[in-house]
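Narrative progress, year one. The postdoctoral researcher (J.K.) led the effort to move from monomer predictions toward full complexes, under supervision of the PI. The following entry was the first complex the group processed end to end, covering 226 residues in total.
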Amino acid sequence: DQQVKQNSPSLSVQEGRISILNCDYTNSMFDYFLWYKKYPAEGPTFLISISSIKDKNEDGRFTVFLNKSAKHLSLHIVPSQPGDSAVYFCAADAGGTSYGKLTFGQGTILTVHP
Amino acid sequence: GAVVSQHPSWVICKSGTSVKIECRSLDFQATTMFWYRQFPKQSLMLMATSNEGSKATYEQGVEKDKFLINHASLTLSTLTVTSAHPEDSSFYICSAGGVGYTFGSGTRLTVV
């Protein structure tokens, strides 16, 4: 049972344009969401997060949107740069006694072309 | 910020041998650490939760006798893959709980 889903295995974007990565979840107990960037054979690097009490969080070129009713979140990268090319994972935390325990999506490979 | 150090970065071992992976919190104390595994082109899957001074809790389907976890101090958790087999070849990553969601750099295990 995949509780966090990233339905797009890959995304290709031109440099300077917007990259939009999507993530859906099914567990209504999730109350904190994160996006990570990852390269092969390396640990995930934290990008941005959002609490379920908010619908938007922005940090530089990265913005995360949360639609709690639709159980959907998205990561916007504007403008996209070639250095953004990597695998992006969304993750969710149910908090409480499970605080810190993350459920990950399958990942989306982002390729930004110069 | 919080730093989690994981060693080794990669290891190759013969089938049937055991391998130990260390995860250290460098500038903070971690009462809880999480161990994940990632197979090629797949997601990160939680294997177990390591609690300082008590037994680890394992996710469904993870063999506790095969993946031994020890969290003897507030800064060190270890994962030992016992009697490793080729199907255990994977990327193992730890993270520290309680101080955000910082991950170690991961360990690529190859069993030949």
